[in-house]
Structures are given as structure tokens and as C-alpha cells.
Amino acid sequence: MPTHHKGSAEEVRALSTFIKLVRGTNSLYGALLPPLQKEFGLTDSQFGVLETLYHLGPLAQGQICQKILKSGSNVTTVVDNLERDGLVRRVRDDDDRRVQVVHLTERGRELIARAFPAHAHRITSAMSALSAAEQTELGKLCGKLGKAVAG
Questions:
Q1: Which tens digits make up the pLDDT trace of 125-148?
Q2: Residues 14 and 7: beta-carbon distance below 8 Å
Q3: What is the CATH classification number for the domain harbouring 118?
Q4: Does position 71 have pLDDT exceeding 90, yes or no?
Q5: What is the total count of domains within the chain?
Q6: Contact at 8 Å (CB) between 102 and 54?
């Protein structure tokens, strides 16, 4: 669905592209996120934190924010809930006591080890609507856009 805005050709093109990007992203989230909640009891942010720690190892909360592109207050709440559920633990950094490093617990590692392959399979299935070349091109375009708007 294109924009109904009657601006310049540049505005109409940009707005129409933006609408398609957002709709496509929302459709993907609509297909991918409910199974995380239903099968594993995880929100997208909780999954993001666990997946980041699973693949990168223990990280300071600020580093997690940068990796999953969420605000500090959001990550604090997510880590609070994951810690409450016994999936992560916080450890004060020996060099800088202001920093809390988040570690997966064994329970958290077991959960993400089950959840990640199922999620990756669903993503692969959803992305199969595009050819390999189209997926590569979309990745390049999204990366270029992300870098441009980030500064």
C-alpha cells in the first residue's frame, strides 16, 4: 500500500518505501514472536538478551543495549525479569564496581539452546519468500540504511 501523501516524487517514493519496510517488518514479527512466547515463555527482548549472551558470552548491560538496540531502562527491566526467573545472573565487574556483567545461568543456557534453533528455522522459512540473491541484497540495503540514519 503506497502513501496517500501528495508531496514531491522524492517524498512519495520515500514514504511508500518506508511503509513497505514497516509492514514487512511487522508481518515478520507477527509470525516470529508469538511462538517464542508460546513455546518458550520469552518476549522478543528477553530472547534478544539470552541470544546475545549465548553467542557472545557475558556482557555488561550497556553492551547488551548496543547489541540488541534497546534502551538502558528496557534492558534493565528485561535483565531483572530474566534474573528473577533464574535465567541470568549479574556479577559486579572487578575493575569497575559500577558495571554489572550479565551471565547466562545453566537454566538460561539450556533454554536458549532450545529456543534459538527453532527461531532460526522459522526465520529461514519466512525469508525463503525471497531468493538467496534477494536476501543478500535486502541485507545490504538494510545495513546501508541503518548506518546512514545512525549517523
A1: 999 999 999 999 999 999 999 999
A2: no
A3: 1.10.10.10
A4: no
A5: 1
A6: no
